[in-house]
Amino acid sequence: MTSYSVDDPFGLAGELTGEEQLIASTVRDWVRRRFLPIVVDAWRAGGLPAALGPELGELGVLGMHLEGYGCAGTSATAYGLACLELEAGDSGLRSFVSVQGSLAMFAIHAFGSEEQKDHWLEPMAAGEVIGCFGLTEPDAGSDPSAMRASARRDGDGWVLNGTKMWITNGSRAGVAVVWAKTDEGIKGFLVPAGSDGFRTVDVKDKLSLVASTTSELIFEDCRLDGDALLPGVGSLRGALACLSEARYGIVWGAVGAARACLEAALDYTASRVQFGRPIAARQIVQQELVEMHVAVNNGLLLATRIGRLKDAGLVTPEHISYGKFSNVRMATDVARRARALLGANGITLEYPVMRHLVNLESVLTYEGTHQIHTLVLGKALTGHAAFE
Question: Least packed by Cβ within 10 Å: which of 48, 83, 155, 236?
């Protein structure tokens, strides 16, 4: 007789290709063997160890969904599964990989010249060069068209001025993909670290995504050669296409964070004895665990469906907004339920739950706030744009 599997109630693993199953298990094993033993140290240090860049490159997850230039060219679903397993470790780890592959590398791959691709992508895939993505500004977050950063032509090159804020990998990056207004529209530029007039300042005293480097990028008459321009796009459309790629990874990653919280709650309630019995034997605790179990698996079903739509070339920005809206909200709720079940222990770094919970507060905001994705779906439902 067929039995109910709490780990895979709908048999999704059986619908994955052999390569997708191998990628998921390989990344899961790496996270548990290599990353989880050091995540608390990374949290206390306020950043990931530099050695992880090349290790993630060797693992093959940096730009893994891109074709050529040292990239694996996997399915979108395989990339999603990797994001799930990475974020089960920490949102900062998945953010590092997402910014590298879905923002910086994707921008170069989609809009760069052949020379730019040849120069940057292979070392970025290997984790030898780290990238960052400069779009958000102190006064231009949800409305990137209001950006103030500007670039003007100066002979054969450009002069870039402005500030970008909340930039993951900023001070660690060997190259920054920066979007700025020009007389010809919003354009993307590749700014190598060490360029004259370019400096970074790390954001301190964060209470979320603590194990991730977050920086301010400052450009003061930063002079760039003419070949710094990304030639394949001349409007904000390029930056938004990159954001859609990164948001897709979040749809999966949120499931990983939620699953980690559920696993912690299951382990804890099975061993925590009160009034002579494990608290997992209590009805009210089982209700919470079931709510979390159903939520996590519904999130996985949604992510898998969106992944297959993306593999078939049928995904839309509304699908991505749907996934981020639903799965990040789900993960935040699961993390809060798990924290409550762990009681006071739930607020310590001995357990992963509070770390995931505070990380998810940032995930709820970045790559489009929860409210912006609400309005994307609202426009689809009503035909009226309500962004202003």
Answer: 155
